[in-house]
Amino acid sequence: MIPIQESLFDHPAIPGIVTPSDMTQYDHIILSVSGGKDSQAMAITVQQEAVKQAVADRLVMVWADTGAEWIETDAHCRYISRELGIPLVVAKPNQSLPDMIERRTLWPSSACRYCTSRAKLDTVIGFVRGYCGKEMQTVLHITGERKGESAHRALLPEFELDKLYSSQKRTVIRWRPMLRYEETDIWAVINGAGMNRHIAYDAGNDRLSCAICILANKEDIRNGAEYHPELAERYLKFERDSGHQFKHGTPLKEILK
Fold first, then answer.
1. What sign does the CA torsion over 152, 156, 162, 163 have?
2. pTM beyond cutoff 0.90
3. Where in the chain is the domain with CATH 3.40.50.620?
4. How far is residue 131's CA from residue 128's CA, in Å, rounded to a whole number?
5. Contact 86, 60 (CB under 8 A)
6. What is the DSSP string of 165-196?
């Protein structure tokens, strides 16, 4: 397992910012969580360090509820919030993801991930703007990506100026402290804290995302449909009515056979 000290403190400095883990220099510390294992381990790790630095009162968790999540995710995020003593804000887009899909008459895809940009990213950006106000502030925005999840995430920096969230009066630093962790390290953090994991993993899911995610593997899609039949029926109807296959070359009806 990667020692916490290595993951938290071995970073290049950004001018005006000593290190991402010197939390005393930030006015707000925002943790983006999904209910999945990586963000849960991230929240545990950051909370432990924040307590050491006497800044736990600056922490807040935000979960973007797209309207297509596992129903159990809301309860699990609230469980993490209670266990760690970090306030949780549930942020919702103006239009749910299923509504977006039907309005656009087109599924999201790896090339057009509006499910992420519109239903999640824009929602969290809106929360940050409202939560932090208009005063001059420095904000630490922490997320739970890991290099081992994808080729794209393997190229992400652990520490950077987040231009999407920043403004003339708000400097937002993005920190990804779990990037170098392996999956076994993630489970060790969660088990070491004596915490429960999301029920999706007990159902056999490899990853947690939306209940029926266009980018998920077939087994995860089947699990999501079994636990959320109403969403499955809605997506199947859209597939029939629109003529657009859920995955390129693979209709949802075939995956759910």
1. negative
2. yes
3. 4-187
4. 5
5. yes
6. T--SSEEEEEE-TTTT--HHHHHHHHHHTT--
Beta-bridge partner residues of 28: 139
- What is the mean predicted confidence (pLDDT) over 90-119? 95
Judged by average pLDDT, the poorest of 82-91, 97-106, 164-173 is: 164-173
Phi and psi dihedrals of 90, rounded to 5?
-100, 115
Domain made up of 4-187: CATH architecture: 3-Layer(aba) Sandwich (3.40)
- Residue 187's pLDDT is 97
At 20 the pLDDT is: 64
CA distance 28 to 31: 10
Euclidean distance between CA atoms 129 and 91, whole angstroms? 12
146 class by beta-carbon count within 10 Å (0-12 exposed, 13-18 middle, 19+ buried): buried
Q: 122-135 pLDDT, tens per residue?
A: 999 999 999 998 78
